[in-house]
């Protein structure tokens, strides 16, 4: 059992999970401390209000409001949980978009632009194809695939300039983001897709439900009634599993990661580095476009078409989701749900206390900042493991290696061997670096330079 636990602890994935959990716990603790400081510093709030804010920061997803006496109540809240899953759907896919690029050595900061292009094509197809002649289910599929393809094509642009012109993908992504924002605004400006039925919604595009096109609930509305949840979360989870299989179990995934590690070495090994760079950004862009498609095909959300002044935050939020998940596609599902949960928590804090939802922004910022230092946390965890293993060996009287060499331990529990020495090859001193004449065989003498009649 101890050996299995030691092997589990030694895995890089275990350390990544622990580093992310440590980041989350520290971020939540920092948020709690800020709430406490604000509550104590403001005479109108006090310690009781601060305690309520802290409880909501940790358990806001399960908040059910206040009872007749005004006390906070907690329990199963289907609306909060369902809305969390709905908001997590695009976050998971934009997180996958950034994670795939990270895995291949690229930084896809162009997810907002790819998300916008996926949004535009999805809405135009979902609203432009008449549901009277084409089945709504088929329109949904066409719109989803169209939005995914639009994001993929837009992601190809930074990939092409990176592969063939060696222009940094970050610069290219920033430019394509704003081009997409203005292009989408221009496409929808004056179009027939603007909501002219409701007088106060002229700046919005029609919901896809106006054309009877919306994502199926798949029974989730029975589990989480009165929430926005739909089958999109199931599609997002399936896509995450497929991405994991692609990156971990296929030759293409290996080639993509090889190009990210060192494109020149990959090219020397016969891998088409330029093709794989473009393909990597296309996959990343397609995932962002798919996230936009699932979000707006739900039938209960509206798109504000005047986007030229800002970029969708959900595209940038994929970066902390990928960082916190250490770019693992399966972990992205959980980190996406966690980030979405913090949004719900912010709403609960705003609605039920005198605090505002920006407290959760501080928590997210702290978690993201620490997740960027996940490698440092993993190194600290690795060092702790080595010291613990050395101490256990010393207590049990066991010596590292094959048992033939004598190894002493210092006061800190570290074995006194050279850092580069392995267990099979113990560290040797200067006098042991070469065999003595008695240990050499006759055949060895004849091969030495300067002997057997040879001249230097």
Provide a descriptive summary of the structure in words:
By secondary structure, this protein is mainly alpha-helical. Helix content is 63%, strand content 2%. The chain folds into 2 domains: 1-76 and 354-389, no CATH class; 79-337, ABC transporter involved in vitamin B12 uptake, BtuC, CATH 1.10.3470. The protein is built from 17 helices and 4 strands. The strands form 2 sheets. It has a two-stranded antiparallel ribbon with strand order 1-2. α6 runs antiparallel to α12 (273-296). 40% of the residues are buried. The model is unreliable at 400-456 (pLDDT under 50).
Could you name the key traits of this structure?
456 residues, mainly alpha, ABC transporter involved in vitamin B12 uptake, BtuC, 2 domains, two-stranded antiparallel sheet, 17 helices, 4 strands, globular, disordered C terminus
């Amino acid at each position: 059992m101890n050996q299995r636990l030691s092997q589990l602890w030694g895995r890089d994935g275990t350390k990544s999970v622990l580093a992310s959990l440590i980041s989350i716990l520290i971020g939540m603790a920092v948020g709690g401390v800020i709430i406490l400081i604000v509550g104590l510093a403001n005479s109108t709030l006090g310690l009781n209000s601060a305690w309520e804010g802290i409880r909501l920061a940790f358990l806001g997803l399960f908040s059910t409001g206040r009872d007749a006496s005004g006390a906070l109540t907690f329990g199963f809240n289907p609306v909060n949980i369902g809305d969390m899953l709905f908001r997590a759907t695009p976050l998971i896919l934009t997180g996958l978009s950034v994670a795939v690029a990270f895995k291949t050595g690229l930084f896809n900061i162009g997810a907002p632009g790819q998300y916008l292009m996926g949004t535009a094509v999805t809405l135009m197809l979902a609203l432009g194809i008449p549901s009277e002649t084409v089945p709504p289910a088929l329109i949904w599929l066409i719109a989803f695939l169209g939005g995914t393809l639009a994001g993929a094509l837009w992601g190809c642009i930074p990939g092409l300039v990176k592969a063939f012109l060696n222009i940094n993908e970050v610069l290219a992504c920033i430019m394509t983001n704003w081009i997409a924002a203005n292009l989408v605004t221009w496409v929808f400006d004056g179009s027939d897709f603007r909501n002219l039925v409701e007088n106060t919604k002229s700046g919005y595009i029609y919901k896809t439900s106006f054309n009877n096109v919306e994502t199926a609930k798949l029974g989730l509305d029975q589990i989480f009634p009165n929430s926005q949840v739909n089958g999109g979360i199931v599609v997002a989870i399936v896509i995450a599993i497929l991405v994991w299989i692609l990156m971990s179990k296929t030759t293409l995934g290996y080639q993509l990661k090889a190009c990210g590690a060192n494109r020149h070495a990959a090219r020397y090994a016969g891998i088409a580095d330029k093709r794989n760079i473009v393909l990597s950004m296309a996959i990343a862009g397609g995932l962002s476009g798919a996230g936009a498609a699932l979000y707006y095909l739900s039938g209960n959300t509206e798109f504000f078409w005047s986007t030229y002044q800002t970029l969708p935050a959900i595209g940038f939020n994929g970066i902390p989701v990928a960082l916190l998940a250490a770019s693992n596609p399966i972990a992205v599902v959980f980190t996406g749900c966690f980030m979405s949960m913090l949004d719900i928590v912010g709403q609960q804090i705003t609605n039920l206390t005198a605090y505002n939802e920006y407290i959760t922004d501080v928590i997210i910022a702290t978690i993201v900042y620490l997740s960027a230092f996940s490698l440092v946390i993993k190194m600290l965890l690795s060092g702790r493991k080595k010291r613990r293993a050395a101490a256990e060996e010393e207590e049990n009287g066991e010596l590292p290696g094959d048992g033939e060499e004598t190894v002493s331990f210092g006061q800190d529990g570290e074995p006194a061997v050279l850092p580069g020495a392995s267990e099979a090859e113990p560290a040797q001193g200067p006098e042991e670096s070469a065999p003595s004449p008695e240990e050499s065989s006759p055949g060895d003498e004849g091969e030495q330079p300067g002997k057997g009649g040879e001249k230097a």
